């Protein structure tokens, strides 16, 4: 991996680079977008640029990659690279964009660290950059080839053939290709990128989990992101793409949609499965449950979900129906404010006729209250604090770290 000379230089300079990376990444994006404004307009998520999460994710990934090279010189951090590569492929990132990123990233690094960036230091970190970039390029080539688009153009035009309001702020869109080609294959748990043209002419892209498997089309669900007031009077603007989809996209309209991607997919086999989700994080789990139900899977399945109220719980009826189709599945639900008669110490009075589903509790999700079978593979999706708590509970219950998988809606700061 890293040459011995570069490894020693990176080891000596990593503390300084890590300390400065919080200054380097904002400056990098400033330089990048000044030279290529079309990237901010049509490729990068403007909301994540505004709130700083994309900068944090970039800084964290660089530091994590460099640290891994030093601590495990004979291994490549495939988990980190695979997740980034799937996101890049869903956006249509191209190989020729990596030298552009390198140019502005190193210009920012030199400006922040000044004379500390000697030729030797620059050469060592250049080696780190291209080890990471070439690993991503190779992974993205494989993903594009598997999607049948070796040129990297996975975008197609789809027509909205149906739209369903799951809750007051969650809508499911059913889309079919406008050409005669078949729908690209997908794996349970994957997502698609959706591109819309906004009022200012920008073509913004967001990723949405596939929430079902309709014949001849794709199905994804979108939660409207409201504007919120933060600490000290700070405000977070409403989601511009989710708002556009909710307000302006209806049956008969067209959308640009990517092929499905995503590295968090359901493991095949017969091991027990547990889905721990909160809020709109239920969408990939519903997609996985749909796949299991269609196959008549005999696997032991626990579907655990947390939400504010029954009214905000998207796919509440689907959860019950899908679990009822599986012979060894149960649903466990926690509501902060449950409706009268929905809280039970046993099966829910409004559940299925066989009495298996669902069990409804009040408060925050407590996976320690469940009997979790040995060998369980768990999938987590929801707000990051929720997933941290769920992960800790599952580790305490004996689930192996290698069997804990999570999906993040947005930049993965955990990596």
From TrEMBL:
Residues 1-141 form the Globin domain. CDD domains: FHb-globin_2, flavohem_like_fad_nad_binding. Pfam families: Globin, NAD_binding_1. The keyword Membrane does not apply. The lineage of its organism: Bacteria, Bacillati, Actinomycetota, Actinomycetes, Kitasatosporales. Keywords: Heme, Iron, Metal-binding, NAD, Oxygen transport, Transport. Residues 153-267 form the FAD-binding FR-type domain. Its EC number is 1.14.12.17. This is nitric oxide dioxygenase. Residues 335-359 are annotated as: Disordered. It is an enzyme of class 1 (oxidoreductase). In the C-terminal section; belongs to the flavoprotein pyridine nucleotide cytochrome reductase family. Belongs to the globin family. InterPro entries: FAD-bd_FR_type, FNR_nucleotide-bd, Globin, Globin-like_sf, Globin/Proto, OxRdtase_FAD/NAD-bd, Riboflavin_synthase-like_b-brl. It catalyses: 2 nitric oxide + NADPH + 2 O2 = 2 nitrate + NADP(+) + H(+); 2 nitric oxide + NADH + 2 O2 = 2 nitrate + NAD(+) + H(+). PROSITE patterns: FAD_FR, GLOBIN. It comes from the Bacteria.
């Amino acid at each position: 991996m890293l040459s011995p000379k570069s490894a020693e230089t990176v080891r000596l300079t990593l503390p300084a680079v890590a300390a400065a990376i919080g200054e380097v990444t904002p400056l990098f994006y400033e330089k990048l977008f000044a030279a290529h404004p079309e990237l901010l307009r049509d490729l990068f998520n403007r909301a994540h640029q505004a709130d700083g999460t994309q900068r944090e994710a970039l800084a964290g990934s660089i530091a994590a990659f460099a640290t891994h090279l030093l601590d495990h010189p004979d291994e490549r951090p495939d988990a980190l690279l695979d997740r980034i590569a799937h996101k890049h492929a869903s956006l249509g990132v191209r190989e020729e964009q990596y030298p552009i990123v390198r140019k502005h990233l190193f210009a920012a690094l030199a400006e922040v660290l000044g004379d500390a960036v000697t030729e030797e230091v620059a050469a060592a970190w250049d080696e780190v950059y291209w080890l990471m970039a070439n690993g991503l390029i190779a992974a993205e080539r494989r993903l594009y080839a598997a999607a049948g688009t070796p040129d990297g153009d996975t975008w197609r035009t789809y027509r909205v053939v149906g739209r369903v309001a799951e809750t007051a702020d969650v809508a499911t869109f059913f889309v079919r290709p406008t050409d005669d080609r078949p729908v690209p294959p997908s794996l349970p748990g994957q997502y698609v990128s959706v591109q819309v043209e906004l009022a200012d002419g920008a073509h913004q892209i967001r990723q949405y989990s596939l929430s079902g498997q309709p014949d001849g089309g794709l199905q994804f669900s979108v939660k409207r992101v409201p504007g919120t007031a933060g600490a000290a009077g700070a405000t977070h603007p409403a989601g511009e793409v989710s708002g556009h989809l909710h307000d302006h996209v209806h049956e008969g309209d067209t959308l640009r949609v990517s092929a499905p991607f995503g590295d968090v997919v359901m493991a095949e086999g017969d091991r027990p499965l547990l889905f721990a989700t909160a809020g709109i994080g239920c969408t990939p789990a519903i997609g996985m449950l749909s796949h299991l139900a269609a196959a008549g899977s005999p696997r032991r399945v626990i579907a655990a979900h947390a939400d504010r109220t029954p009214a905000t719980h998207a796919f509440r009826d689907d959860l019950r129906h899908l679990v009822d189709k599986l012979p060894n599945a149960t649903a466990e639900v926690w509501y902060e404010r449950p409706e009268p008669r929905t809280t039970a110490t046993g099966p829910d009075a409004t559940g299925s006729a066989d009495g298996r589903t669902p069990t409804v509790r009040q408060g925050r999700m407590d996976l320690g209250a469940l009997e979790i079978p040995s060998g369980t593979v768990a999938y987590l999706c929801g707000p990051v604090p929720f997933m941290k708590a769920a992960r800790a509970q599952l580790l305490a219950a004996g689930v192996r770290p290698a069997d804990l998988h999570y999906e993040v809606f947005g930049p993965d700061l955990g990596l």
